[in-house]
Specification:
Layout: H1 2-7, H2 12-15, H3 21-37, H4 45-48, H5 53-57, H6 62-78, H7 86-97, H8 103-118, H9 122-132, H10 138-155, H11 163-173, H12 178-195, H13 208-220, H14 236-247, H15 265-268, H16 282-285, H17 291-305, H18 316-328, H19 332-349, H20 354-366, H21 373-387, H22 392-402, H23 408-423, H24 432-445, H25 451-468, H26 470-473, H27 482-494, H28 501-514, H29 524-538, H30 543-556, H31 562-574, H32 581-589, H33 594-598, H34 605-621, H35 629-636, H36 647-663, H37 668-681, H38 688-702, H39 704-717, H40 721-738, H41 745-756, H42 761-778, H43 791-804, H44 817-821, H45 823-841, H46 853-859, H47 864-881, H48 891-898, H49 904-921, H50 929-939, H51 945-962, H52 965-968, H53 972-978, H54 982-995, H55 1010-1017, H56 1022-1039, H57 1041-1048, H58 1053-1068, H59 1079-1084, H60 1092-1104, H61 1107-1117, H62 1123-1129, H63 1137-1146, H64 1158-1167, H65 1181-1191, H66 1197-1203, H67 1208-1222, H68 1226-1231, H69 1233-1244, H70 1249-1268, H71 1275-1279, H72 1282-1288, H73 1294-1307, H74 1313-1323, H75 1329-1346, H76 1355-1364, H77 1371-1388, H78 1392-1396, H79 1401-1412, H80 1421-1437, ...
């Protein structure tokens, strides 16, 4: 006993864990007793054993284990915490108890499992038991099966989930162990009891013997449904009921039948994946030409679709293939097979097939034209299977479309399909709005000539009658004759509905017992639908009499309720038969005196009047029940009837009609008697009012829709405009009185259109007034009906609509009996009708025919451009259609593919189209939700923010049309949430959090999203976690805490704890569900009129199609129900109501608590890293919590709650409070400024614009106040706020950016500008281009306001970083950087170039160009200072962007000059330019900025273009006498006056204003088209071309991207530009002036224009491209061949380096241009500078060696290069090697080696022959010398003559050449040049000859020839005469003759020989210059040359003085001439000075 003494005194829980089994045994026994004694289930004692219970059941000692099991059972039964142990304990039972040999242990184990189920732990128990089925020990498996069977038998299938059990049953039947199979058999029998035949499909594949045994067992089972015998703790009420029933002897067994849930076998099946099992060649085979191959493919598919349940997936391709087979296959067998496959697919997918249903149903219906029974049967099965996957509502449009088909088979099968479909419907799923059009179509078919069509229609109508009942159907059957009505009812009797068979059977006796036709009228819809069969059998009399009889019965016998009376009254009015006149007289005599009836047709009006008075009295005293309305009105209609001539009698008659209609049971039959007369009299002046009153009374009795339709039709059948006008006026008023419900708008609109076209203005006015009233109810869609009206009329309609905007429809003041009779049903029906009313009325276009296969293939094309073209086409189709029908063919499938497009631009375009489609299709878009809507959600996972934003907008536009139900149905949403994409998850959860609170109910499928929601709570992405937390309360609002907690039970323990905590937090803030619509209140007040608010809300919601809006309007009105108060308290449900009142009282105090030194302490804490440093990219929760903690001590609690609330509305409230208290609590604000600013940074990260705008408003006021207080921000405050403010400067919205800039400007008053500069510089590192641009603008403003000292850390470093931005790819950033550097330039001048460091050539050119245009010259310093004085205060007080406004505008206007000019001027003429700058008069400076600035500042005004009289300037100018002339000859005179004009006009070409540019181009075109004026453009060609391609660049980058800009204007501008340039390039001399650099950029611009895809979208775009093509041909042909060839080579090099354009098409077009030039080489080789071309080829080959070219994808560049070189070699031969002179280092490229190879090869081909003919005396050309060689030699010589430096050398070579080859013909070369140049060459040759032969002078005849040149030639003269004077090529010194020659030239220029002989020879000085110089100097060089002409003349004088004449035989005239020259030069000098 010693051992025992060790543990005997231990506590029970320690005994249970003791290592000695006896101790444990004792412990278990005592624990069992203890558990029985504890009465409080929540006693803390229970918790001690939580971790021990598993040990109780898993004890290793069998004896102890038995006691442990008993104790565990007691614990589970009594402890409230026992549920926590369920999983581990049941696992222990399965593994350690069920394998025990003792039966008692197994029993206890089973009991423990069942007890856990009883305490609501079914799921973990079932899960562990199912795990046990996989155990290898058969004993455990058997015990588990047995336990499951017992649980199912006792608790029933509601508690125990059958699906997982059924899933494992087949596997159990395959077990080797007989015991397992036997137990499985018992389990299958138990399951069969609960679900019956639903168990058969899952077990169809088990062993046939086993199945047979099961069948035998199943047959033995009782037919009654089993009942639950053991109940959960929460089902104790059911338990007591069960015990009572048992005590009563099961008398109420029938009532309990419904307890067993109906289980669908489909739900028990496992889905099968078939898409992957399809044969690989399935799609090829199904398209094959041989039908056998197609059959094989279909058979393979048929095998797969036989699986009863299919895995969801994308079946669009399969469905499309089957649709094609069914619709187009010629083999009917394959059609039938395809239909079978489609049926199998639909049956296997069920609801998941819904998205494909609408696409296949039209094809199936059309195919019913086939007559073969097997095909028809297959099609029927297919369409029936498809119907079960969707709703009749979705298919109704397709069915209605074929009801009018000419083929009777199609009509028959469509009707039969409707009949079969109706059997599955219920009254709720077959509303009137759906039934009405279907019945209308079927009623047409009952009159069809084909018997089978009529029978099918009868069957369909009979089925509909069976479903909805007679009361609903009767209004549609009014016009059906008796025989047909009987046949419909006979068909109805035969129908057996799928739903409600039991109710028919059970209620049949009761219905039959009533035996009355209308017995169902008092018992509502349910009785009606269920008892129709019995009613139909008991009712056989003719329709007319039966109705009449029943009317009498009902009129006398009071019904069972008021609703019954109302209903019957409704039916009477609609179906009253016409009475014979005798019957009418008889019935009228019963209520009227005989004298009255006799005098009705008296000829004396007084008697007729007396008769009317008696008639009135008779009507008034007669009771309503017996008032014969039809008889009385027929009496009134007797002669004279409505043609009564006496107005008093007529007025009485009309009054009586109104009285009868108000008092009696006035039917439509009665109304038809009087309406015609009323319409005739409504236009009468005296009787019109009475007629209107009568119409109103009839409308009250027979409904306004019917009455209005009748009277409007009657009025417009007449020709009386007065009647028409008054009818429309009455209708407008009646709509306001009765409301808009039920009106046939389509019918009215056709009449209104007729009225609008009337000639009578009163009719038109009335029609417009009526439209205004209709607009109140219908809204904007009404206008769509009238868009084709004339503009004047449309403007009147719009004016009327504008009057009505903002008004709400008036509440109806009159009631219609029909709508008041059955309030509940009428309300529901009216809601249904109104919701879709307006949308249904709108005319919709069927675009199905436009969705062609070509369009579908385009949308799926591999080339993105083709796909884009397809999308553009589709967008155009939708735009044209405006409103469309839901039939969109194969579009959903291909559009779904485009949502996954790799090109994000196409994704966005697809989203825009889907948004467009939602608007166009309206509510019908819901049928495309699954196939198109869900992929929109997928796009929310895109990484690009703008794509996600577009997807969200599209998604919301769809939801607005469809509602949320379609989106939440099924697994699609949960599958999306399952994807681990952080963007998708956060966007989707945010969207759900927004939408779910607006719903009153949601589908149960929302529960499928919960597990994924829980995983989002633990997502690694913080934003996803936050969104999941925000979404939790909205999910809980619909699913409830219990369900969500239960779902959390399946998570891992760690995850579960976290999720449960989140659930508990969410439970406190669950929003209240929206209240039900106010129609519920109208139900309770059945007798009262509908509340106006409800009516108006419904109409508004119908027009807007938005439930949420309707709810809001209802909630505002429904204060009595407490809805509004609930809504207000919902967000703050956590806080009780009483404390809220306290808080309201506390809000009156200060919001800030000033704590001494608190701010300093916070700074210290942050420095010491005690708290987080305020530095983040996106704020995490830790920062928010930290800030909240810091604020708790110094901010009012209530304000803090508002500031940190999750709802943005509270943030706005908090900001409003801060604004209100700012000026009153300045000290408190300053004390807490760091915290306030930090909180504001958090708000910067909110996406809500309202909050952001409020924040900026507060900041502006805050910094204004701080500035007044002279407060300066601390470093801590600035660093934690300003960087985040700078981030917001990149916002896309202009308003926000402007405010932020304004705040940054104000910040300089409270924080040093130099420090601000540093922080803004950090903003340049952002990826946001808008932010970078704005930061640069702000930096410029700071520099301008505070000088360079503001730049930190140093101006050099800062400006280098700013200058780096000039190379940015974003235009706005580049412009901002350039503007900022220009600002610096304006301060420090040229020093800026040192500060910014080295820039690339391109960037430097941009900068210099901008500086050049900045108009900040030294002459305007005073103006600048004045501007600064006025601008700086504005910048401080208003907006930081203001100071730079002037700087921005000037450069933006002036982008004319090009960097080529700058490079040329800087490289060749820098020194001369610097010398002559100060001497150039202002008008020659070509500086438009200077001129513009002078004009703006009030200086010299630039003349307006219009004021120039160009014609005068172009007239020939005679050279005046030299008496009073200055230096300037007529060249300078003309250009001095016209150059500035032409420069200005050319500058306008590049204007950003399109009209300005077009005007300038028009003026230039005028000049170019007139030969007399063309030469004035010479020298301006480069300038004009630069301006032109700058404009092209502006159009390409700016205008085409501007959506607001009219594209017609752009096309007009393109036309002007291209037209001008074609004209220019047709004038060869001008074309050859274009320099290489300009041509390069011109070709670049033109090629880009040709490749601009945006042009293709414009109407005239293709024409523009064709024109550009023509222009490019002209440029290639007419330009200087050297320049154009060189420019193309350089452009190709740039394009291949990807510096110009990355498009391969771009390079290809350049190469095509090169090929064309190569083809022109044979004709151009003589004038081409081959050296320069080879230099360019050398550079190209250096950059692109042969190896690099080989690596390229295309071999075209290499082939182009080889072709060019080969052609040159072929033309020039070996001499080509002499043209490598310009290449400095030939080894840098392979050019030389390549040329040698080609030359050698060509020589080898010619056999190595050489020209061996001997020269004859050295004076003739070798006979065999090639012509190319001659041309090359002469071309080289003439090139030298044309160049400035080598003129003398060229003349000498030409002289030698002519001397050597006396027969050489140089005439072709001379013909190409001007007359002056020819004369110059001849003179030069004579000079050389004289020099060589020693002659001292030139003969007088030659000295006077050809020196009077036109002004355009002077630059070339100057350049050709300014050669050095040191001698010629042979070293001889130059004689006086040279100077004489020069003097002649100078004399001509200065006008000193205006009467020379040459002037007589050349009277017309104006002709085109045709120089052969290879390069044309730029316009700046031109100007420079003009200004250096004088200097040349001075040099001539000096040269002549320094070189005495060499010839001894010089005459005295030479000296005299020299003296004369000196004098004249002196005179020139003095006059110039």
């Amino acid at each position: 006993m010693g051992d025992e003494s060790e543990w005997i005194k231990l506590p029970i829980d320690q005994k249970c864990e003791h290592k000695v089994w006896k101790a444990r045994l004792n412990g278990y026994e005592e624990a069992a007793k203890l558990f029985q004694k504890i009465s409080d289930e929540k006693s803390p004692e229970w918790s001690k054993y939580l971790g021990l219970i598993k040990k109780f059941v898993t004890d290793s000692n069998a004896v102890a284990q038995l006691k442990g099991l008993e104790a565990a059972l007691a614990y589970v039964e009594n402890a409230h915490v026992a549920g926590k142990t369920a999983g581990e304990v049941v696992s222990g039972v399965v593994n350690k108890v069920f394998n025990q040999p003792k039966a008692r242990a197994k029993e206890l184990g089973t009991e423990i499992c069942l007890m856990y189920i009883e305490i609501e732990k079914t799921e973990p128990v079932q899960e562990e038991l199912l795990k046990g089925l996989d155990n290898k020990n058969p004993k455990i498996v058997v015990a588990c099966i047995e336990t499951i069977r017992k649980a199912l038998g006792e608790f029933g299938s509601k508690i125990v989930q059958l699906k997982p059990i059924v899933k494992v049953l087949p596997k159990l039947f395959e077990s080797r162990e007989k015991a397992v199979r036997d137990e499985a058999k018992l389990l299958a029998v138990e399951v069969y009891k609960w679900i019956r035949d639903a168990l058969r499909p899952p077990l169809q594949n088990i062993n046939s013997v086993q199945l047979k045994e099961l069948e035998e067992e199943w047959v033995k089972l009782p037919t009654t449904a089993p009942r639950q015998t053991r109940f959960l703790r929460s089902q104790q009420d059911l338990k007591s009921k069960f015990e009572q029933h048992q005590a009563a002897g099961d008398d109420e067994e029938d009532d309990e039948e419904g307890d067993a849930p109906v289980v669908d076998a489909y739900e028990l099946l496992e889905p099968v994946e078939i898409l992957l099992k399809l044969p690989k060649d399935f799609y090829d085979k199904i398209e094959a030409k041989k039908w056998q191959e197609r059959k094989e493919a279909l058979e393979a598919l048929e095998v797969l679709v036989k699986n009863p349940k299919l895995e969801s997936g994308d079946y669009s391709d399969v469905v499309r293939a089957l649709k094609k087979v069914i619709g187009k296959d010629s083999n009917v067998l394959l059609v039938a097979l395809g239909a079978k496959c489609l049926a199998g697919l639909a049956a296997g997918l069920r609801k998941k097939f819904q998205s494909y249903a609408a696409h296949v149903v039209p094809t199936l219906l059309e195919k019913f034209k086939e007559k073969k029974p097997q095909v028809v049967q297959a099609l029927q099965e297919a369409i029936d299977a498809v119907f079960l996957t969707t709703t009749l509502q979705n298919l109704s449009e397709d069915v209605l479309a074929v009801m009018d088909n000419k083929n009777p088979s199609i009509k028959q099968q469509a009707s039969l399909f409707l009949a079969r479909s109706f059997r599955y419907c219920t009254p709720s799923t077959l509303p009137k709005s759906l039934l009405k059009p279907l019945c209308a179509a079927l009623l047409k078919q009952i009159n069809d000539s084909a018997l089978e069509v009529r029978d099918a229609a009868f069957e369909a109508l009979g089925t509909a009658l069976k479903v909805v009942g007679e009361r609903v159907m009767n209004p549609f059957l009014v016009d059906v004759d008796k025989l047909k009505l009987d046949k419909i009812k006979e068909s109805s009797d035969k129908v057996e509905l799928v739903h409600g068979k039991k109710s028919n059977a059970s209620k049949e006796g009761k219905a039959g017992a009533s035996g009355k036709v209308c017995s169902s009228s008092s018992s509502g819809d349910k009785v009606d639908s269920s008892s129709t069969k019995a009613v139909g059998q008991s009712k056989k009399p003719p329709a007319g009499k039966s109705v009449g009889a029943s009317k009498k019965v009902k009129a006398v016998v009071p019904p069972s309720g008021p609703s019954g009376k109302g209903k019957k009254g409704t039916e009477i009015k609609e179906v009253e038969p016409e009475l014979a006149i005798e019957v009418c007289e008889e019935r009228a005599a019963a209520v009227l005196p005989a004298s009255c009836l006799q005098q009705l047709d008296s000829s004396n009006w007084k008697e007729r009047l007396a008769s009317m008075e008696e008639f009135q009295k008779g009507v008034e005293v007669t009771e309503k029940k017996v008032l014969p309305c039809q008889a009385l009105v027929r009496m009134l209609a007797k002669k004279p009837g409505w043609k009564e001539t006496n107005f008093q009698v007529m007025q009485m008659k009309l009054y009586i009609v109104a009285l009868i209609a108000q008092k009696g049971s006035f039917s439509r039959t009665s109304a038809e008697v009087v309406l015609d007369g009323l319409v005739d009299k409504i236009g009468d002046i005296k009787c019109g009012m009475k007629a209107k009153e009568a119409l109103t009374a009839i409308a009250g009795a027979c409904s306004l829709p019917w009455t209005a339709e009748q009277v409007v039709a009657m009025a417009f059948a007449q020709k009386n405009p007065k009647n028409q006008s008054e009818i429309l006026n009455w209708l407008a008023n009646a709509i306001k009185e009765f409301g808009f419900a039920g009106l046939n708008v389509k019918a009215f609109i056709s009449h209104v259109k007729t009225a609008l076209a009337a000639t009578n203005p009163a009719v038109r006015t009335s029609a417009i007034t009526l439209l205004g009233v209709m607009y109140l109810y219908m809204g904007a869609p009404l206008r769509m009906f009238f868009e084709d009206e004339k503009p004047a009329l449309l403007s009147q309609i719009d004016a009327e609509f504008e009057k009505m905007q903002g008004q709400t429809p008036p509440a109806p003041i009159r009631r219609v009996v029909k709508y008041d009779a059955d309030e509940e049903e009428a309300t529901e029906e009216q809601d249904d009708e109104e919701n879709g009313n307006v949308q249904d009325l709108l005319p919709r276009t069927d675009i199905g025919d436009k969705i062609t296969s070509d369009l579908v293939s385009k949308l799926g094309d591999k080339n993105w451009k083709v796909r884009k073209e397809g999308l553009d086409e589709l967008s155009t189709i939708l735009n044209e259609a405006k409103l469309i029908q839901p039939n969109i063919g194969e579009l959903p499938g291909v559009l779904k593919g485009r949502l996954n497009d790799s090109n994000k631009i196409l994704v966005q375009q697809t989203l825009a189209i889907l948004q467009q489609m939602a608007t166009a299709m309206g509510p019908n878009i819901r049928q495309h939700v699954k196939i198109l809507g869900i992929p929109i959600i997928t796009v929310l996972g895109d990484s690009k923010n703008n794509v996600r934003a577009a997807a969200l907008t599209t998604l919301n536009s769809w939801v607005e049309k469809t509602g949320m139900k379609e989106w939440l149905d099924g697994e699609d949403l949960s599958e999306e949430l399952k994807k681990e994409n952080p963007f998708l998850r956060q966007e989707l959860l945010g969207w759900l959090a927004e939408k779910l609170p607006t719903l009153r109910s949601v589908p149960t499928d929302l529960m499928l999203c919960v597990p994924h929601l829980y995983s989002c709570l633990e997502d690694r992405n913080g934003d996803v976690r936050k969104k999941a937390q925000d979404a939790l309360p909205t999910f809980m609002m619909h699913l409830g805490y219990e369900k969500m907690y239960k779902a959390a039970g399946k998570l891992k323990p760690a995850s579960k704890d976290q999720v449960v905590t989140a659930l508990e937090k969410a439970q406190a803030i669950v929003p209240a569900k929206p209240a039900a619509p106010t129609k519920t209140s109208s139900k309770s007040n059945a007798g009262a009129a509908r509340p106006p608010s409800a009516a108006s809300a419904r109409v508004n919601s119908a027009s807007a199609n938005d439930e949420a809006d309707a709810f809001k309007s209802d909630a505002k009105k429904g204060k009595s129900t407490g809805v509004a108060s609930k809504l207000k308290s919902a967000p703050n449900k956590k806080v009780p109501s009483k404390p809220n009142i306290k808080d309201d009282d506390d809000k009156s105090g200060p919001i800030f608590i000033i704590v001494p030194n608190a701010k300093e302490q916070r700074v210290k804490d942050e420095r010491a890293l005690k708290v987080l440093k305020w530095n983040f990219t996106t704020p995490r929760d830790e920062y928010s919590e930290q800030l909240k903690t810091q604020m708790s001590s110094c901010v009012a609690k209530w304000l803090q709650d508002e500031m940190f609330h999750t709802d943005f509305h509270h943030h706005i409230k908090a900001l409003t409070v801060l604004l209100e208290h700012l000026e009153n609590e300045i000290e408190g604000t300053v004390a807490c400024l760091d915290l306030i600013l930090k909180w504001l940074t958090l708000r910067f990260f909110d996406t809500n614009t309202s909050v952001l705008m409020k924040v900026l408003e507060y900041l502006k006021l805050l910094f204004t106040v701080l500035n007044k207080e002279d407060y300066h921000l601390t470093e801590n405050e600035a660093s934690s706020f300003i960087p985040y403010l700078i981030n917001k400067v990149g916002e896309p919205k202009d308003v926000i950016r402007k405010d932020v800039r304004s705040i940054l400007n104000m910040m300089c008053n409270v924080y040093p500008a130099s420090k601000m500069f540093n922080l803004i510089m950090e903003g340049l590192k952002s990826k946001n281009s808008k932010q970078r641009a704005e930061c640069l603008e702000e930096l410029g403003a700071l520099i301008e306001a505070h000088d360079l000292n503001v730049c930190q850390p140093t101006p050099t470093k800062a400006l280098k970083e700013i200058a780096c931005q000039i190379g940015d790819r974003d235009t706005s950033v580049r412009n901002a950087a350039l503007n900022t550097v220009v600002t610096v330039y304006n301060i420090c001048g040229d020093q800026v170039f040192k500060l910014i460091g080295n820039l690339s050539e391109k960037e430097m050119s941009m900068l210099e160009e901008r500086i050049k245009r900045s108009a900040k010259k030294s002459t305007t310093v005073s103006i600048k200072q004045l501007e600064e004085k006025t601008q700086r205060p504005q910048g401080i007080n208003q907006n930081a962007a203001m100071p730079r406004k002037g700087c921005e505008e000037v450069p933006s206007k002036l982008k004319i000059m090009y960097r080529t000019y700058r490079i040329q001027a800087r490289s060749s003429n820098a020194h001369s330019a610097s010398e002559s700058t100060h001497t150039i008069p202002k008008e020659f400076q070509l500086d438009l900025d200077e001129i513009e600035n002078d004009n703006n500042a009030g200086g010299c005004e630039l003349p307006d273009l219009v004021q120039h009289k160009l014609d005068e300037l172009y007239e020939p100018v005679c050279i005046p006498e030299p008496k009073n002339r200055s230096v300037s000859p007529h060249y300078d005179e003309m250009h001095g006056t016209t150059d500035s004009t032409i420069n200005f006009v050319v500058s306008q070409v590049a204007s950003s204003d399109i009209n300005t540019s077009i005007q300038a181009l028009a003026q230039i075109d005028e000049v170019l088209r007139q030969e007399s004026k063309v030469d004035t453009m010479s020298g301006h060609i480069d300038q004009f071309l630069i301006a032109t391609f700058m404009q092209l660049r502006l159009i390409y980058n700016t205008h085409m991207a501007d959506e607001k800009l009219n594209k017609t204007e752009i096309l007009k501008l393109y036309s002007c530009i291209i037209g001008n340039m074609i004209t220019l390039f047709q004038i060869e001399p001008l074309a050859k002036e274009a320099s290489m650099g300009v041509l390069k950029d011109l070709m670049h611009g033109l090629i880009l224009l040709m490749l601009d895809s945006r042009l293709e979208d414009l109407d005239e775009g293709p024409q523009v491209i064709r024109s550009v093509n023509l222009l490019m041909v002209k440029v290639l042909e007419k330009s200087d061949p050297t320049n154009i060839l060189s420019s193309l080579i350089v452009l190709l090099q740039d394009s291949l380096l990807a510096t110009t354009n990355n498009s391969p098409k771009f390079s290809e077009l350049i190469m095509k241009c090169l090929w064309r030039m190569i083809r022109l080489l044979p004709s151009n080789v003589n004038v081409i500078n081959v050296d320069r071309i080879l230099l360019d080829v050398h550079n190209f080959m250096r950059v692109f060696p042969r190896e690099r070219l080989k690596q390229m994808k295309s071999d075209l560049p290499m082939r182009t290069q080889k072709t060019l070189l080969h052609t040159l070699c072929k033309l020039l031969g070996p001499k080509i090697m002499d043209h490598l002179t310009l290449i400095e280092n030939k080894n840098e490229s392979e050019l030389e080696a390549h040329l040698r190879r080609v030359t050698k090869h060509s020589m080898a081909l010619s056999g190595g022959k050489t020209d061996s003919e001997t020269e004859k005396g050295g004076s003739t050309i070798e006979d065999k010398e090639s012509k190319a060689k001659i041309s090359e030699t002469l071309a080289e010589i003439f090139k030298k003559i044309g160049s400035k430096e080598n003129t003398r050398e060229g003349l000498a070579e030409l002289y030698e050449y002519r001397k050597k080859y006396s027969d050489a013909d140089i005439e072709p070369f001379l013909r190409k040049s001007s007359q002056f140049f020819q004369n110059y060459i001849e003179r030069g040759l004579r000079l050389v000859e004289n020099e060589r032969e020693g002659k001292g002078r030139i003969s007088s005849s030659s000295s006077s020839a050809g020196f009077s040149s036109p002004p355009d030639e002077l630059p070339y003269v100057a350049s050709s005469t300014s050669i050095p004077s040191t001698g010629s090529t042979n070293g001889e010194e130059v004689g006086p003759a040279v100077y004489l020659e020069r003097l002649k030239i100078l004399r001509q220029r200065c006008g000193l020989e205006n009467n020379s002989k040459h002037e007589e020879d050349n009277p017309q000085p104006h002709f085109y210059p045709k120089p052969t110089v290879p390069t044309v100097v730029s316009s700046s060089e031109l100007l420079h040359n003009k200004l250096t002409h004088l200097r040349d003349s001075r040099e001539c004088n000096q040269e002549q003085e320094s070189h005495p004449p060499m010839q001894t035989n010089s005459s005295t005239t030479s000296a005299a001439n020299l003296d004369d020259l000196k004098k004249r030069l002196e005179r020139i000098k003095s006059s110039r000075k």
